[in-house]
Amino acid sequence: MNLVDLKNVLISVIGPAPENLTLEPSNNYIKLSWNRNYCPEAVGYYIYRKVSPSGFIPDTCEIGVPSYTGYERIAKLNSYNDTLYIDNNNGSGLLQGYEYCYMVTSFWDDGAEGYASDEVCSPLVRGIPVITNVSINYTDVTNGSVYLAWAKPIEFDSINAPGPYKYLIYRSNDLYGLNLQLIDSLSGINDTLFTDTILNTKDTPISYKVEFYNDESGNRFLIGAPQVASSVYLKTYPDDNSLTLRFEKNIPWINDFYIVYKLNTLTSSYDSIGVTYTEEFIDDSLKNGDSYCYKVESSGGYKVNNIINPILNFSQEQCGIPKDTISPCQPSVYAISNCDSAYHQLSWSNPNNICSNDVFKYNIYYKSTLNGNYVLIFTTQNSTDTTFKYYPKASMAGCYLVSAVDSFANESQLVSNFCIDNCSYYELPNVFSPDGDGKNDYFRPGPYKFVEKIDLKIFNRWGVLVFQTDDPDINWNGNYIENNKPVTDGVYYYICDVYEQRLTGLEPRTLLGFIHVFNNKQKTTE
């Protein structure tokens, strides 16, 4: 009978959530504060942020702030007593027009993280202008115009800034306000519309910044300024029978979608042709070489109340000409050698039979060695020319590439080649008769090509060297090399290294054989 029962139990202790998280918003930052964790073993806090509420409530064993909530960890405070944090987006300022939400957790020196605090959200104080429109009114190189609008500030400190007020308007010919120049000003707080004229709106995006000033005499100071906002800048990229439209922008609000318009050449007006939820749109079924013009209307907004919604802005008008930029398929090449006539016969496949039917000529490239560089040697006149005869000059060795070229000068890849090694032309006879009758008096090779040199040695039956030369023509008259006297009739043995140009460069080919010498002149003894 067991009087004792033992069981192992694993217990996890989870740190408590920070309490009483509060937010104090300003024009471009939010101050966070919370109660110090009542567990003094905690060593610090993590700060998490997202735009718009998530509704996250941690489960019993769910610690920290999971990534599926959309929250991003933005700060780590390494002190248990540090319960204040100012979020200014690392010095660049938070953007107006959004509701910012936060959670805070505690962490311990072993890396453990506790429960998340309650989710607390707040927009920024509307104490500065909020740009809503940078819309291209008219596209031109010199006389373009832009419509600029903003929402006026409504929550600034009017006691310290009693007015009168003034807006200063800055412009930069780029997306990011890299070269802002003061171009105008508007007095008062309610005038929030401005038309900028005499601009090049065709070739570059345009960005603006609006500063809000207290313009009291003797008390002039900057109250605040919003983020830079740019126009939507449209670019076109040509492709085969299509154009790809891409949109660039730098804005403090969120664009939800874009409406694409194309110029109707019959009515001279722009017609809507589609909607895209990304910064790209492809218009296909076009004709290569024709011009097509477009503009884009963006639709979006801020995620807070009391600001115009939707925010609509037009890009500049932009034209493009589709062209074929796709390379044809590469032909498969094959070659054979005609050693007797010293030429290569090439043939290749016609890509029009298996790929796009747009090839109209071929380029033929050649190199004499594997390590050499290809050189263009011929261009055919039409796509049906799929054979070529080439007479190499230095060697029958070589490699070939054949590329296909379409009507827009797109050339296929140069990756699939065909190589042929040199023909073995150099051959030696096995008999000659140096008897002075004018017939077969010299030991010579048959007709040959592409031999740079030889190393020939001829021996008698006892292994004595009787003749040697490096001249490919040889021209041995049957005399001893030492005393220039005729050799006796008989069989002689030779070793000949023939140096020929091959694919790998100058390479020797060794010939071994016998020579029968028939000499009817006065014999000499060996």
Chain-wise SSE layout:
Layout: E1 22-25, E2 30-33, E3 44-51, E4 72-77, E5 84-87, E6 99-107, E7 120-123, E8 130-138, E9 144-151, E10 165-172, E11 181-187, E12 193-199, E13 207-216, E14 219-224, E15 229-230, E16 233-239, E17 242-248, E18 254-264, E19 269-276, E20 280-283, E21 292-301, E22 311-314, E23 318-320, E24 333-338, E25 343-348, E26 359-367, E27 375-379, E28 387-390, E29 398-406, E30 418-420, E31 431-432, E32 451-459, E33 465-469, E34 490-502, E35 505-517
Parallel strand pairs: 31-35
Antiparallel strand pairs: 1-2, 2-5, 3-4, 3-6, 6-7, 8-9, 9-12, 10-11, 10-13, 13-14, 13-15, 16-17, 17-20, 18-19, 18-21, 21-22, 21-23, 24-25, 25-28, 26-27, 26-29, 29-30, 32-33, 32-34, 34-35
Describe this structure in words.
By secondary structure, the protein is an all-beta fold. The chain folds into 5 domains: 22-123, Immunoglobulins (Immunoglobulin-like), CATH 2.60.40.10; 130-230, Immunoglobulin-like, CATH 2.60.40; 233-320, Immunoglobulins (Immunoglobulin-like, Sandwich); 333-420, Immunoglobulins (Immunoglobulin-like); 431-517, Immunoglobulin-like. 0% of the residues lie in helices and 44% in strands. It has strands at residues 22-25, 30-33, 44-51, 72-77, 84-87, 99-107, 120-123, 130-138, 144-151, 165-172, 181-187, 193-199, 207-216, 219-224, 229-230, 233-239, 242-248, 254-264, 269-276, 280-283, 292-301, 311-314, 318-320, 333-338, 343-348, 359-367, 375-379, 387-390, 398-406, 418-420, 431-432, 451-459, 465-469, 490-502, 505-517. The model is unreliable at 522-526 (pLDDT under 50).
